[in-house]
């Protein structure tokens, strides 16, 4: 019976390897890769390929991969860039199924390199091969049945349960070094380089059911296919945590945007929204990545966010408490029985409330007793144990006591040892560690909050996509008219018409080119009304006094209309004037903003936030990537810092959240139906506490 192999197995589980470009020169990449494969004791055949050498590393060398008499699963290519395409042809003729192209000089170097890379991809597809690279550092698989270190990194990889992928080769070497220092091991390590073929998405699929991989770490510089990543990550995070560092958080490269939504989306919000939606935990730095990784490697997933803090020093306990609260953890209220047992056994100088302070004289026996009680408390989901070493107590004895207690409970325990560097070096090298150890309380609190966040994201409902009956034809005709007129900006009347066609609640309005039109519209709507100038290039009407509110009679409307025309003339906007929007006057409600903005890589983003004139200065907004589910809409609203305003303060009733959630989902449907919408703002949308009374008051839409 023929063995069924995964398409990536020839790369990560090869039975034979050709190192094409193997070198006799010690220190060269071709020498280091062959040396690492041999030194790590690869469980397969190794064939050095170099036409100018007979033997390398005491292994017979071949002039070409075609001269190797045995089948070859994987070729590691380390030849000059000009030779890569020829070598790939030979690999294809040989029947090689997997390639790792270490060689640089492809799309990272400019147009000529890009053309070379495109030809490389054409060849591997022609031969049905899969490829890591080019411009990468190599791959590692620590599975004892494979034992493959096909990198030129100087650090010997430790075996472990982490799958790690990095787009940066140089950073990959530093990561291997840092992991060794922390005693963290990898199941597999992949330097992806230019991702010309195999991408992070392929690796997620490969690791999803890999029995040797429990945690997935990713260093990302870009997303090749964000949609596919979202689908995969949503599925994978239900089984295994994914922790990512994404480079490029700042606004240095942000595009110019004319709308509130576009301006607020100039930062790193698309990546943040994508990772949040699909359950991926985002680390803010490489150090943070490893802090979180240690927690996930050594700790079970907690059932809740209630934390007990055990310490022998008051200052670090206060720091830990502040950090826990800042990260959304709850300081557990200990059960009366727990407090009574602590009081009966501990010196009277000790504090038995949470944090539990054992004072400086506490030894391993005391720590063992107190931690066992805390973990047995049904009000405690996790514990942070702090130890500041006094001269008379050996920190290793404390660590042994913590490890012993931890092994008898199914709750996460994170240690904070404010000890010399030698202690950490010795602890990280212990093969039988059972809990993570940090130098500072903030690191432990952050890591514990990530464990809690993963549980919440893993267990949350998927949500449902809703489709509404809408009048799409109205919008199609309107957009066609705007394009025929050579415009990309819709005026407020047109924008409100679009919203109305898609079932968003809109205040009653009329469009007036003349005073007579305005009077007719106001009488149909019913006083009081609001008058707004509509003019090309006029983004913010209030800047020229282009809004007059609470117009109650025909006489007031005539004066208001004339005033607006005078202001238009004063600001030189006569040629830009389109008309006047007449709207019903709406009182009450809390101002929010809804929006759409097109991201060049991620597609439409849906936005919700606190609205009105403060939207950009407060920037209290949430973004999600299209399409959004009912769960996404609900979480967007509740994620705002100002959510309490919507929920109601000082006796105010809450707004109609059902109306807000439906408005966001209708907006999502609009974004999907019309990808030519570059930016859309609904600002303000007045959220009322009365069902059916919430309404959009103003809107802007810009098309491609």
3D structure, described in words:
By secondary structure, the chain is an alpha/beta fold. It has four domains: 9-213, NAD(P)-binding Rossmann-like Domain (Rossmann fold); 299-459, Rossmann fold (3-Layer(aba) Sandwich); 472-584, ATP-grasp fold, A domain (Dna Ligase, domain 1); 590-703, D-amino Acid Aminotransferase, Chain A, domain 1 (2-Layer Sandwich), CATH 3.30.470.20. Helix 10 crosses helix 16 and helix 17 (472-484) runs antiparallel to helix 18. The longest helix has 19 residues, at 441-459. The protein is flat and about 100 Å long. Mean pLDDT is 90; it is low at 251-258.
In short:
This protein is of the alpha/beta class and 704 residues long. The strands form six sheets. A seven-stranded mixed sheet has the order 9-8-11-10-12-13-14, with helices on both faces.
List the helices and strands and how they pair.
Blueprint: H1 9-12, E1 16-20, H2 29-39, E2 45-49, E3 55-56, E4 59-60, E5 74-77, H3 84-94, E6 98-101, H4 111-127, E7 130-132, E8 138-141, E9 148-151, E10 159-166, H5 169-182, E11 186-191, H6 200-208, E12 215-220, H7 226-236, E13 242-246, H8 260-264, H9 269-277, E14 281-282, H10 286-298, E15 306-311, H11 314-326, E16 330-331, H12 336-345, E17 356-357, H13 364-376, E18 382-387, H14 395-406, E19 413-417, H15 421-428, E20 437-438, H16 441-459, H17 472-484, E21 489-490, H18 492-501, E22 509-512, H19 515-525, E23 529-535, E24 547-551, H20 554-570, E25 577-584, E26 590-599, E27 603-610, H21 615-618, E28 621-625, H22 630-638, H23 643-647, H24 657-673, E29 677-687, E30 695-696, E31 699-703
